Amino acid sequence: MDNTQTHGKYISWPILTLMAFVTVIGFDDIMYNFKNQGMTVITSWVLMLFLYVIPYSLMVGQLGSVFNKEGGGLSSWIRGTNGEFLGYFTAWTYWAASVPYVVDSANSVVVGFGWAFTGSDKFQDTMSNAQFTLWTFIIFIIFIIIQRRLANSMEFLSVVGGGMMFVMTILFVVLAFVGLAKNGGHMATQPMNVHTIIPNFDLKYWTTVGMLIYAVNGSELIAPYVTQMRKPQREFPKAMIALAIMTAFLTIFGSFALGIYFNAYHLPNDLKMNGSYYAFQALGEQFGLGDVFMYVYAWTSVVYMCALLAVLLDAMTRMLISDTGDKYMPEFLRKTTKDGLPINGYILTCTLCAFIMFLGVFLPEMNDVFNWLLNLNGIISPGVTCWIFYAFMRIRKNSSKYPSQYVFIKNDKLAYLVGLLLLLVTALATLLGVAPQDVEQFSHTWWYELVINIVSIVVLIGLGALLPSIRRRELKYGTAFDRSQWYLMIALVVFSVVFDVWLGGTKIALRLVYIIIEVVIALALLVLIAHKKPSQN
């Protein structure tokens, strides 16, 4: 059958470029990494674009082409190369990576409303960590309740908000350079020379690479559209090269533009949370418009983040429940209302988000909570990206079994090696990213963040490994656990988490050792309780 008949119409490579661009980079991504690396991030962006973004995107293209009948999703790629269980576990880790992202998005909504209504960061001085967490949770619950009624309109608003965000980013970069010419080339970053943009490739630098990867991943979302191109073998590389050029423009010139208004050698501590608003505030002042740009950006951010939050909450839960079937997912999580809503899946999402927010309550300041959640994304998100390179290696190891309309690097051995190198780099960035950022190294807060980083990862990923066992108990006994078992296990988990978080916040010298001992004891008790046959009453 003719391709036109199969797909209705072809997708041109410029359209695919724009679709990919929206998923890959944004203004906040530039701001976050500018805070981590200063002006040296310009060199990092150049290296990332040519050594990571382009090959990563082209690998995604081939995977999408191979598994086009399965819809091109990440879990279907792993399921097609490694079987059902690993496909399920990939779906779980992809979902788990969305949990900190959702919480971070809710945080951004609170911050955005604060700037939109007050026009400054003063509201943060009167808001405690507990209040920040409470407002975040309230917004989260509101969107859980109303998302069913507003899902379609929120998808529309996300397109509008995303488009406005893109326009605001381009506007900032262009006007920043106009302003630079207007004031005779003066920059806040001084001195500004070649040495200013050359990184020190030390351990601190490598711990920030995960955030760079978090900023540029996401192109796997456009994989299903590869086979809808007229000539994928020629047009898809064009789309990815165009994507690299657009990303290069935004990241390199955007980072340089930030250096015009911020001294890269002495950046504000709250730049990740408030930097975007500071930037547009400075832009408006330079052009004699006061806070106009800042207010426009604040409301743009609120609209975009609200829409993103509503869509994410529904999409991530439905994806997990529907993509894993009944073999590994417990029946109580697959329970739906008469409207088809996975109600217990929402409760699980809500519970884990509340758990993540609780871990950050005991950090010193609201800014620390925001930075920690953001950096947690820089750990988990690159970890999930490892699955992409692993799937690519599998299809190139046996390329005759996985035919594709588009092939990245015709030589299988060379392609396999490139996939392996990117897998190793991403895995290393994930491991090093566990080290806390934005706080003094080995300080009290540093150790506390290290503990809650590890706790978050263990809970989010570990729970996915436990669900198939719970499903097997359902099939064996008719129910996984009786009521008393559920109560005991929930109480034990809550006590263990609260105790570990409290202990991590103390100054006891051997607190990490005590936490490990407590976790081992708690796990042993959980196994004993869960192993017991449930009462049929």
TrEMBL record:
Native source organism of the sequence: Ligilactobacillus animalis
Coiled-coil zones: none
Compartment annotation: Cell membrane
Keywords: Cell membrane, Membrane, Transmembrane, Transmembrane helix, Transport
Its membrane topology: Multi-pass membrane protein
GO cellular component, one term: plasma membrane
TM annotation in the entry: 12-32, 39-58, 130-146, 158-181, 205-227, 239-262, 292-313, 343-363, 369-393, 414-434, 446-466, 486-505, 511-530
Pfam families to which the protein is assigned, alphabetical: AA_permease_2
GO MF annotation terms: transmembrane transporter activity
Keyword Transmembrane: yes
Organism lineage string: Bacteria, Bacillati, Bacillota, Bacilli, Lactobacillales
Protein name: Amino acid permease
Keyword Phosphoprotein: no
